């Protein structure tokens, strides 16, 4: 089967990691697996970028500046400004009006230049990417594309359902047309309130589209069903993200700590999030408060909170410390941090179906997390971990303290966590679900072509 996935990056965290795992698994199974991305970060020959128009002088100048990225401060931002605003001046006007930019001719060129039409096009996040602001994919192409080839969207957040934000954080305006946005700073941020215009633009695109929709959680599918995307849905399915248990698996804690240079006698809590302290969708303050409260009660051992995905100085407090660790590109190294931890703590204001919780479960680590959005579908209360109200550091600390104080409980919940991850969230299970659906979509499309030809 010829499968084309579209993603912001080929390598990254969150949605990008999901797309890459699927891309790699399909190829291992013998399918013609390709990926088109906004920003290519690997040298993989089966990954292509959306081709910029080399005839435009800003694009040519950007290419000449490429060797200076990382050597001259600001070179990266200048290149993105040239590629977006200087090469396509209307994009600058749109951004000043608070309108999401869909003017990416590269999207059309990619498909026009494609020699072999894929059997299925599978889109992931269509916002953000290699530009200073905006995106990389022309959303207006969805009606044209979905009429020619089965087109699937896997939603990893709610951007496709709203006037601008990746997570609505309790606001319900997305159900009725947005406008009068209460927070334009939510990623992807806008300079001015153009949310009503953006909402209507997306609605008009979906009105002419026929799409297959997948979500990793039932919570997100319910959001789709209440949105302006619903009329475009041919079929929707909930397919949980998968975790590679060959990498993220239980391991010896003492060996993991020794390999990472971590103290053997400390009680270690772990929180994994990209730019954890700046990410408005996570809730670092609650995790920090939890660690401090646990350390104040748990006097038999020092408490160490590891924040993986954040570059910052170590913070020392009474009977404990918070140590930040930069994002790790090697999954095996990331798995070591889970294996070294006693408890995984995850506080979020909004989270669809975080991979980090799946990775912790798969490594046999008890999880204590906030009960928001899709997280309760991951953690079985009292068996693989505990759920607490959003922002409740006291409840989180109480559960963590209980786990640290009762080794038998911690071990039992860790075993249940690994079993749940293996049974419900295995990567092969996710791959099988998508491949099976692709086959149905392709067969349905072939039948439609044969009927049209017969007529």
From TrEMBL:
GO molecular function terms listed in the Swiss-Prot or TrEMBL record: glycosyltransferase activity
The organism's place on the tree of life at top rank: Bacteria
Pfam entry (one): Glyco_trans_1_4
Gene3D superfamilies given in the database record: Glycogen Phosphorylase B
Glycosyltransferase subfamily 4-like N-terminal domain ranges (all copies): 13-245
Keyword terms of this UniProt record: Transferase
Protein's name according to its UniProt entry: Glycosyl transferase group 1
